[in-house]
Amino acid sequence: MGGADEGGGEGVEVRLGRDAAPVGVWEREYTRDEWLDQLPTQGAFTRLPPDQLAQVLEAVGAAIDAMGGRFTMPYATVAVMATTR
């Protein structure tokens, strides 16, 4: 085990081939309200106190408004295979 393209926990080895390619690539357009509705459910935002979350949402909302009120988010799915030792 080792290297930037490998990882895993005890008893599990995960390898990503050097020429691994996304299995699926797509885009989704979000409106300001759609993005702000789901943003508090992600990562560190779930732990912010309400006043700090409100500040983040206000700033992100203003940034989306500055882009015309909507934006396109690219997504990619990559297949990963894990084996046990």
Provide keyphrases for this structure:
disordered N terminus; three-stranded antiparallel beta sheet; alpha+beta; 85 residues; two-stranded antiparallel ribbon
Report on the structure:
The chain has one domain (6-84). Helix content is 28%, strand content 31%. It has 2 helices and 5 strands. A hairpin with a 4-residue loop joins strand 1 (6-7) and strand 2 (12-15). It is flat, with a radius of gyration of 18 Å.
Provide the fold topology:
Blueprint: E1 6-7, E2 12-15, E3 24-31, H1 32-38, H2 50-66, E4 70-77, E5 81-84
Antiparallel strand pairs: 1-2, 2-5, 3-4
The major pleated sheet works out as:
3 strands, antiparallel
Low-confidence runs of at least 5 consecutive residues: 1-9
Whole-number average pLDDT? 83
Radius of gyration: 18 Å
First-last Cα distance = 12 Å
Helix content: 25-40%
Strand count: 5
Question: Order of strands in the sheet with the most strands?
Answer: 1-2-5
Count of individual domains = 1
Quick summary of this structure?
The chain is α+β, with helices and mostly antiparallel strands and 85 residues long. It has one domain (6-84).
